[in-house]
Amino acid sequence: MNRNIKFRIYDDVHKIMVFIDEVFKMCFDDKHFESYELMFDENKCLICRGFDTIDSDFGDEMINDTYFNLQQYTGLKDINNVEIYEGDIIKCHYANAIKDTHIEQVIFYKGKFMAYEKIDGTEHLTSLYDGTSRLIVDKSVYMDKIEVIGNIYENKELLEEEG
Fold first, then answer.
1. What is the distance between the alpha carbons of residues 151 and 158, in angstroms, rounded to a whole number?
2. Which of 11, 27, 43, 131 lies at a CB distance of 3.0 to 4.6 Å from 142, suitable for a disulfide?
3. 71 contacts: CB under 8 Å, gap ≥ 6
4. DSSP the chain
5. Is the predicted pLDDT of residue 89 greater than 90, yes or no?
6. Beta-bridge partner residues of 17
């Protein structure tokens, strides 16, 4: 099975989502850093660094060096054909459930992408790949529709705890 490995970051300096489709990305406008670079940190975790450069007596000098967390593409698309990334806020419809619509966050947990929500202080996780929840005993309850409605950086208010 082949799937695209793609990333994005939320550049909180410029308040913009940046899709990282190369190891090194150059931008030539005032809305982004001049460069974005994928790299490994001291813990061998893949991160993204954004920076600008200026000319100096010693060549180009890096300034505004900032680090961002990567959000990986899940390999899935929602009902509107929008790519689903880690950090997205999704509206999920569960067939045959007592409450059929839930607002959840996409996370990467124990090797797979999950829909996460907290209800009355209890955490719920549902696999995005097979639609099954580890907390639902009734196997006739499953996720059948997903729609991206925002992300945790720009629309955090959508995740207010359900009760």
1. 9
2. 131
3. 7, 8, 9, 10, 85, 86, 87, 88
4. ------EEEEETTTTEEEEE-SSEEE--STTS-SEEEEEE-TTS-EEEEEEEEEEETTEEEEEEEEEE--EEEEEEE-TTSPEEETTEEEEEEEET-SS-EEEEEEEEETTEEEEEEEETTEEEEEETTT--BTT---TT-EEEEEEEEEETTT-GGGGPPB-
5. yes
6. 10
- Distance, in Å, from the CA atom of 71 to the CA atom of 91, rounded to the nearest integer, reads 19
pLDDT reported for residue 144: 67
Tokens of 1: 């099975």
Asked whether the beta carbons of 63 and 51 are under 8 A apart, the reply is yes
**pLDDT tens-digit readout, 36-72:** 888 888 888 888 888 887 766 666 666 677 888 889 9
- Residue listed under structure tokens 């990567």: 70
Measuring CA to CA, which residue among 2, 161, 148 is closest to residue 75?
Answer: 2
